Task: inverse folding
């Protein structure tokens, strides 16, 4: 038995997972034979879409937009606020609890205890059409006289960041901009976020939300690219209800590689330590189909892994160490291990995506104090 650590590399370190290798191998039966090395390559391509310098700048500076627009941040203005650290199912639980708080801040109103009510999204009149620049002396964004911002939105200039600290590089080096445009109409509340550097739009998505008396839903729909050939389409839907808790549905496709990842995570009450988290994840592509289904509690969890429909392995956790064991006890190769670990970590990265995409729009929501 050996203990390995696999750290997924992305713009923000996501889910440092310690896995005890207990062995895995097996045959697959599918139109697309299972290829663990190919699966890992697909995951690397997916991760690369979030690894451009432009995405790094966006992740760093978008946390500051709320303060510039006079709102309270949905996502705390700290890079660590969207850095999931933990082991196995525990990191998923922490991420799920944080996602529920984000949705609560957006949808739950103080004057409607026990219920949900959609807030109104709007660009503050005083800043509509303004371009914001970063002020080194105050480490904040301030309005400028620069043109180019959408009339019914705002523009924030982006700057290079230190690749180690994720802080603004010194001296400032302008690299692009973020346009946030209000698309709200009638009962539909929505904003479009576009991140541009040079002639390339690296990120383009729409955040929309709706709610009723007992439920609320936030949707993120768009794409992310690294600008050199890798593009991922994202469809992320997070729903919270008074009676049923939180459900996150995350779909990511890379048409160029014919790869699709679909994940559903649900928890009835993230405030209760013993409330289980249910996971259903599928990665499908030219290198086979991997499914992971199971449940995590506070200090335990079991995920069953199938490859092209056949039982393949079991992932278990005691809250500290996560173990992968081949269903029939036979050993597995390093290639199998790396592939399964990468797919397993998609759970945490989905919640990170949720946080990163919501960060720029917090001030557009009339949040409760």
Result:
């Amino acid at each position: 038995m050996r203990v390995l650590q696999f750290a997924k590399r992305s713009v923000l370190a996501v889910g440092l997972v310690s896995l005890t290798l207990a062995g895995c191998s097996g045959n697959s039966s599918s139109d697309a034979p299972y290829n663990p090395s190919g699966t890992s390559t697909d995951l690397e391509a997916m991760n690369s879409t979030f690894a451009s310098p432009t995405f790094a700048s966006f992740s760093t500076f978008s946390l500051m937009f709320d303060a510039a627009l006079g709102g309270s941040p949905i996502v705390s203005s700290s890079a660590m606020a969207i850095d999931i650290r933990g082991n196995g199912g525990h990191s998923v639980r922490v991420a799920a609890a944080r996602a529920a708080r984000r949705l609560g801040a957006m949808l739950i109103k103080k004057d409607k205890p026990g219920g949900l009510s959609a807030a109104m999204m709007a660009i503050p009149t005083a800043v509509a059409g303004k371009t914001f620049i970063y002020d080194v002396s105050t480490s904040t964004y301030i309005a400028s006289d620069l043109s180019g911002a959408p009339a019914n939105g705002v523009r924030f200039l982006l700057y290079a960041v230190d690749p180690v600290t994720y802080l603004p590089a010194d001296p400032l080096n302008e690299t692009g901009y973020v346009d946030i445009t209000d698309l709200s109409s009638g009962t539909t509340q929505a904003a479009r976020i576009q991140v541009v550097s040079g002639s390339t739009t690296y990120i383009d998505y729409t955040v929309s939300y709706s709610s009723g008396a007992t439920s609320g839903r936030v949707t993120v729909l768009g794409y992310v690219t690294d600008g050199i050939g890798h593009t991922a389409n994202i469809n992320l839907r997070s729903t919270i209800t008074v009676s049923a808790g939180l459900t996150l549905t995350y779909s990511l496709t890379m048409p160029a590689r014919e790869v699709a990842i679909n994940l559903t995570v649900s928890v009835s009450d993230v405030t209760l330590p013993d409330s289980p988290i249910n996971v259903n994840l599928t990665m499908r592509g030219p290198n086979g189909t991997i499914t992971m289904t199971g449940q995590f509690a506070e200090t335990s969890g079991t995920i069953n892994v199938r490859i092209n429909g056949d039982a393949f392995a079991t992932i278990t956790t005691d809250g500290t160490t996560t173990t992968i064991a081949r269903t029939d006890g036979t050993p597995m190769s390093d290639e199998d291990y790396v592939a399964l670990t990468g797919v397993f970590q998609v759970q945490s990265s989905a919640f990170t995506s949720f946080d990163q995409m919501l960060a720029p729009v917090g001030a557009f929501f009339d949040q409760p104090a």
